[in-house]
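TA notes. Do not distribute before section.
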Amino acid sequence: MKKRYPQFYWLSFKYIPYTLSSPSIRRVEFHVSRQSRDKYQFEEFFFTSTGNVIFANFYAARLFAEKINAVRDVLHHPEEAASAAEINAMGLIDEIIHAILAYYRQEIAPTVFQEAHQFLQEQFPSQLRHTLLTFLEFFPPSDVYLGKRTPEEYLDEVSEGTPNEQIVLEELILLWLANQNPAFQKYEELFDDSVLQNTTPYPQIITELEEFFNQQPPVALISYMEPTPLFKFIRKPIDEAPDSIAEQLKYIQQEWGAYLSHLLTIDIERIKELERYGLPGLPSSTDTGTRLLRGLDYIIEEEKLRFHPGAGPAPTEVPDYLPLEEDIEQYSPDLDWMPNLVLIAKSTLVWLDQLSKKYQRSITRLDQIPDEELDLLKNWGFTGLWLIGIWERSKASKRIKQLCGNPEAESSAYSLFDYQIAEDLGGEPGYQNLKERCWKRGIRLACDMVPNHTGIDARWVMEHPEWYIQLPYSPFPSYTFNGPDLSWHPDIG
């Protein structure tokens, strides 16, 4: 027999135009214990006023993971390395659950946490406050952690019109949910609730809370969804994919994604706070669908880069060209010589060295290439000569290779100073000389030009930095910039 509810509500996120300026929506993410904050020395800017960690963008997640990995022995135990992608996804999942609770409280049952607190007060008259104070001691809000308030003072206060007792009760639910998630187990140290389990009636309180919410109005995102009690609803991603953070994100994306667009928005004050610390404040995206996709992509990319010794060969993936079918065809016109071209590619420096040995003299420039060699190419039937590596190369590239222990190294052909024929190869006059001699033999010259193959000291980088995608910070927190000055520009170092 189906349970009858006194009143039914659909929780539709799609048409609710609220923002984080609304006092009942608090931007928070997953919990971090006092012990972990002390151990890993997380900076204060990671934390909200409630003591939870918050990531404004993926860089913040990388910085957070770097703090953990700097303490853990990841060299001898690489399996313990914290993943920025997973931490970012955990924060996103927790943020979504917090937002769902906020809208449930706002749209469906505005007094539900007040009623829940009263209900628990009756069930645990002498132990509820002790449990909440223990939570505040081991998972302290920022003011409690910094010693500005005692747990008792914080618990008796009101934040934005809501008694802190109710706020802490909600946080208790999220802490329990994180510890129930097998996919989060690798990071359990950060939010381990063992102390609460062993010293308070926390497990019984959670059990009673779940039963309490079973009697409250259920949640459904759209009419065809089955109405579900709140606790069961927020546990759905775990039930569907207990062992995978990525799969939990996929579930949220597929089942809830269309209804989250107004649920997660930008916290402008939080951005300003981060920027006061000198950190980037802009989120990676303002669109929830994009944030979910990126959260998944970060995990996929990290998994590709991870070394798995003994795991066997990489999977064979069949390329998918279907998205290209809708692209506009913008091919260059087919001229008569194109289908008849017979092209030979030469790595220029290697070829010149080979010619020097073959002809027993120094051949280092394009205008020094013997006519006999061009005649040979013609007689072999070649009508095109592709010269690889003819552009002016980066001196910084050469210096970096030398600093890495290769004193005879040349600059990389993919790290260029300028898109001009290299002076060492004879410059533009040397090229024109070779072009004229090749043309007499019916041989066309070809080269490739890739705009982003510029070195760190390239002329374009120095003179036109606006041409490049850039960030005001290093995307990888572990990078350091304390090497020698590689710049030729007097104003840039």
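Switch to the second chain here.
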Amino acid sequence: MLKGGSLPSPIITPLSSSPLSSKNKIHTQTFVEIRSDIPNIRIYFTVDGTKPDPFQTFRTGSISTYLYRGAFRLGPGRRVVKAIAVTQ
């Protein structure tokens, strides 16, 4: 059961029909989708394994948290996708 004010984690899914793809390892040309069954939320994500921060400001010269707008391809190399849902 969820605590008051918390939302279920978004679902991260590789969009691949390749039999060689697994849940934890995907080809870099594979699109990744992030979704939630909760309406009217925003999804924020990172691809470097850090916790998404929807209130992040441009302080350090780079931003690692992105607002999800649609399926995307991961860059080459090891990537760890993390996502959170936030009410609008």
